[in-house]
Amino acid sequence: MKSYNVTIQPGPLSGSIDIPPAKSMLHRALIAAALSRGESMIEPIILSDDVLATINAIKGIGAQVTIENNRAFVRGIKTIKRQEKIIDVYDSGSTLRFMIPIASLASRSITFNVRESLRQRPLTIYNHIFKDDLIQDGHHITINGTLEPGDYTIDGTLSSQFISGLMFTLPLLKAPSKLYVTNPSSKMYIDLTIETLEAFNIEIQDTDYGYYIKGSQTYKPTNFNVHGDFSQAAFFLTAGLTNKNIRVRNLDIDSFQADKAFIDIVKKMNGKFLNQEDGYSSVFSHLNGATIDLDACPDLGPVLALLATQAKGTTKLINAKRLRYKESDRIVSTVKTLSALGANIDNTEDSIIIHGKTALKGGVTLDSYHDHRIVMMASIAATFCKFPVTIRDAHFVEKSYPHFFKDLKSLGAEITYEEVLHDNT
Questions:
Q1: CA-based angle 255:258:263, to the nearest 5?
Q2: For 360-408, how does the pLDDT look when each residue is reduced to its tens digit (9 = 90+)?
Q3: For residues 249 and 228, is the Cβ–Cβ distance under 8 A?
Q4: Which residues are bridge partners to 67 per DSSP?
Q5: CA 333 distance to own-chain centroid
Q6: 70: which residues sit within 8 A by CB, 6+ positions away?
Q7: What residues does 282 pair with on adjacent strands?
Q8: Domain boundaries, the chain
Q9: What are the distances in angstroms from CA 200 to CA 39, 227, 403?
Q10: Catalytic option among 49, 88, 295, 299
């Protein structure tokens, strides 16, 4: 990946764009296809760094993947075999947490190579399940043990990704299993996993205690269509709510994506949208502050904090503690970034408080914190600042959205690039 900084000039955005396919859906569909006996087609696909990590991971257990015309053709496997002793999952938390239980079924140990920020993200639930069979040694995480069918009690506070990871694997075991879920968070992400698994012939039963999973199930290949990503759309819709109308296409208004909550949250803040056949148009709105619970949709934290700077009154983003375990500590990086731009913003251990409406000044150089969502938040903010804004290491946006700046320019943003040469000696 080439390293670069960007400088963005203030100015209105307008127009329409096609939102890229949802990363959360791509991860799930690629893995389900890899576990199917036959060839599946997944479309459209965007080769972001995180998606490439999942492709790398499923190849590492024997799946074959071909990319043609924005489609992924995945030939799945009958049995999980170690093709690579070390599988690089880059910095993708979803990939690692989904793949660890699957990798445990291989006949030989599998080691995952992880980048620095992913290394800091906890694997608490898997540490409890696999105990000494899950070994963390620097940038390497090795799984030796085998997941067994049975009853598992999972605390959902930290992340729903552990629950989804077990859901991929437990149906393959010979006996049934039960997941007892306490403190469920981000349930819509779990629902998205279940919906994806159903498309590949896997049944997960929702129960009063959590989930019942039959054993000896078989994944079957399918053609899977991936809808646009609401978490990416939120950044452009924010620009439209505070500026001129912007239309985003390729969104499914009936989607199970957790970040679809952005639409209802913004309406609560007096924001206005026009429903389109294939998405939404945002309308310039006089926004009001609100109390927003991020428990089910933590990835919306940075963009909602930005939006709140342009809302009258106080906005509180509560139940935000899981933001601390992302690519950056997003409570810290969000507050520092918006504060540097002139926002009146503060935080507690698990909340962000924004006092608006505030005219953002800009005229500063910002750190990307190596976090794609911070880059996107800062970029949209820059367009309605008074002075230009420079973002260091802006290339980290490619983790989820490789053509973000191309789309931003298509809406009228004036962006200049500065390539950065890092000394690797």
A1: 75
A2: 999 999 999 999 999 999 999 999 999 999 999 999 999 999 999 999 9
A3: yes
A4: 72
A5: 17
A6: 43, 44, 45, 46
A7: 246, 273
A8: 3-20+227-420, 23-216
A9: 11, 17, 30
A10: 299
Q: Which two tokens stand for residue 412?
A: 């009228």
Model confidence pLDDT, tens digit, residues 202-246: 999 999 999 999 999 999 999 999 999 999 999 999 999 988 789
- Choices 1.20.120.1200, 3.65.10.10, 3.20.20.70, 3.40.30.10: CATH for 3-20+227-420: 3.65.10.10
The string of pLDDT tens digits covering residues 304-325 is: 999 999 999 999 999 999 899 8
Read off the pLDDT of residues 12-26 as tens digits, 9 standing for 90 and up. 999 999 999 999 999
Strands (DSSP E) found in 233-340:
246-249, 272-276, 279-283, 291-293, 313-318
Q: Which two tokens stand for residue 138?
A: 């620097």
Active site includes 299? yes
Is the pLDDT assigned to residue 72 strictly greater than 90?
Answer: yes
**Is residue 194 pLDDT above 60, yes or no?**
yes
Distance CA 5, CA 319 (A): 33
Cα distance between residue 97 and residue 129, in whole Å: 13
Which residues are CB-contacts of 36 (< 8 A; sequence separation ≥ 6)? 74, 76, 200, 201, 219, 220, 221, 222
Strand partners for 231? none
- Whether 3-20+227-420 shares its CATH topology with 23-216 is answered yes
Strands (E), 132-257: 134-137, 140-143, 151-155, 177-182, 204-206, 210-213, 223-225, 246-249
Percent of the chain with pLDDT over 90: 86
* Residue 370 Cα to chain centre, angstroms: 15
Alpha helices in 200-329 (DSSP H): 230-241, 261-268, 301-308
SS3 breakdown of the chain: % helix, strand, coil, rounded to 5? Answer: 35, 25, 40
Instruction: State which CATH number among 3.40.50.1110, 3.30.1360.70, 3.65.10.10, 3.30.70.260 fits the domain covering 23-216.
Output: 3.65.10.10
Per-residue confidence (pLDDT) for residue 107, from 0 to 100: 86
Work out the angle between the directed axes of helices 93-103 and 23-34 (0-180°, nearest 10): 20
